[in-house]
Amino acid sequence: MSRRNRGGLPLTDRLAALREAVEVAEGRLDVPDVARARTLLAKAGAREALGDATVVALAGATGSGKSTLFNALSGAEVSTPGVRRPTTGVAHASVWGEAGADRLLDWLEVPRRHRIADADPALDGLVLLDLPDHDSVRLEHRLEVDRLVELVDVLVWVLDPQKYADAAVHERYLAPMAGHAGVLVVVLNQIDRLDEQAAAACLADLRRLLDGEGLADTPIVATSARTGVGLTELRAELTRRVGVRRAATERLTADVRAVAAALAAHCTDGTTGPAAGRAPRPS
Ligand SMILES: Nc1nc2c(ncn2[C@@H]2O[C@H](COP(=O)(O)OP(=O)(O)O)[C@@H](O)[C@H]2O)c(=O)[nH]1
Ligand SMILES: [Mg+2]
């Protein structure tokens, strides 16, 4: 895996610095961010050992069109659209020609796998997941979404013209990705349900919402999984991310930055503030 990242320290150095900070914080800083940092170090260690395939998840509400998009991108009926079955609580994977994908999917605990026959070589290394609905009435489905949202390299959030502004999605999933704008792609699916003018207005409003959430760098792709509109653009967006083989590194880098910033907020220069009062000075 390539470990350099644009305009900054290599991921390896960032992880080493975070490990040092966690060791220093151990027994001195009693905040959940230390445990979060430890969890991230474990995740990074595991993910880095699993190669540079790109794990992309399709996430979204019930009926937004995740499964239909998943099938359209996979070129096969892999996931049954619009059907409520107990198995909809389990993610499905399509794999484009990657030999090491099984170990990666074992780590992700995604048992249902489909290998794409005659895969487009431009997408070689793509592991696409169809996630359960984030708004499922079943708690275990929602927990499965939250678990995988933490682990994947690229998140494609599928919205539809009815629910694209849903506060629950923006507050719970999109706004918290502000430091992860490059990890996220937003799809406005079912664009065929709108006339040209309404589609433009809807896209402009969605752009405004995302910009306001610190997601100005996140692309929006308008699609219709039904008619095929926008699928070329979405495939191109995925091809670009898969091709550079850096998505895992970029996701982990964004994670480290967020956790490090949270830890730093608990620290002072050692002479003032609440942290100095509680923490014995390092020897
Ligand atoms: N008009 C229209 N219908 C769609 C589109 N994508 C999916 N659907 C339909 O919406 C319903 C829900 O789609 P599904 O893929 O099961 O959504 P999921 O719950 O997000 O997996 C199905 O009846 C699909 O045929 C689209 O782009 N346009
Ligand atoms: Mg589905």
Sum up the structure in keywords.
283 residues, alpha/beta, Rossmann fold, 7-stranded mixed beta sheet, globular, binds guanosine-5'-diphosphate, binds magnesium ion
Walkthrough of the structure:
With 283 residues, this protein is α/β, with parallel strands linked by helices. The chain folds into 2 domains: 11-47 and 251-278, no CATH class; 53-244, Rossmann fold, CATH 3.40.50.300. The protein is 44% helix and 12% strand. It has helices at 11-25, 32-48, 66-74, 101-108, 139-151, 167-174, 196-212, 231-244, 247-264, 273-278, and strands spanning 54-60, 92-95, 112-115, 126-130, 154-159, 184-188, 220-222. The longest helix has 18 residues, at 247-264. It starts with 10 loop residues before the first helix and ends in a 5-residue tail after the last helix. The structure holds guanosine-5'-diphosphate and magnesium ion (MG). Magnesium ion binds at residues 66-67, 88.
Q: How far apart are the first and last residues' alpha carbons, in Å? A: 36 Å
Uncertain residue segments: 273-283
Question: Number of helix segments?
Answer: 10
- Structural class by secondary-structure content: alpha/beta
* Distinct ligand kinds: guanosine-5'-diphosphate, magnesium ion
Work out the helicity level: 40-55%
> How many β-strands, per DSSP?
7
Task: Characterize the main sheet.
Answer: 7 strands, mixed
Residues in β-strands, percent: 5-15%
Can you identify the CATH class of the largest domain? Alpha Beta
Q: What is the fold-level CATH name, i.e. the topology of the largest domain?
A: Rossmann fold
Number of domains: 2
